[in-house]
Task: structure prediction
Amino acid sequence: MPDDLILETREVTKEFRGFVAVAGVSLKVKRGSIHGLIGPNGAGKTTMFNLLTRFLPVTRGTILHRGEDVTRMPPAQVARRGVVRSFQISAVFGSLTALENVRIALQRPLGTSFRFWAPSRSLSVLDDRARALLADVDLQDLADVPAGELPYGRKRALELATTLALEPEVLLLDEPTAGMGHEDVGRVAELIKRVARGRTVLMVEHNLSVVADLCDTITVLARGSVLAEGSYAQVSADPSVREAYIGSAA
Result:
């Protein structure tokens, strides 16, 4: 693998009882880039994320991270290598404060992830780092607010903070602006741009204005296969891409 590539797939295929969800996808993600994965509904984007993070087994093909074959590696081991993802549905503990949510994510490096019986004061050593992560996503003033009371866009920002707590080298974002109003979309797009400094981001996103603003390279999937790849200007001018999007919400 060339030094500028951090994540690569070679002819990756995923079949479900004869249905081909991903068909021979070869993807090259450059180190330090923001790489967009777009396509109409049912194109195979989230399935690709599940394959890359090993939530689903690959039927055929190879996945490489830093040049090492991780195709059969357990999901937890892939995460420990620094390939970390978010999900379409916000996954935070609503009854815990924003600070407490981030502290839980920070426990993993300390090896205390399962010490639920320990007093909360034993985790105070993590407070400074947790507050710094909240500041990174503009939630420093909401640290003591229960996550369940946060507006939707701020919950997604909190989820981003908990993901950053795992110190990802490659950050996979699955529709980070889904369901947001215009103001929240702009805020989260700026946050993604900020946290992308010093790391690689691969993102599935339906909002094409966000993709155009953030992504260095865009891969377009349709029916499980790569339809086009290049800059936003290149893929948006591709007649096959425009045809694939006819009638889609994007």
Observations:
- The chain has two domains: 1-82+168-250, 91-166.
- The longest strand covers residues 5-16.
- The chain has nine helices and ten strands.
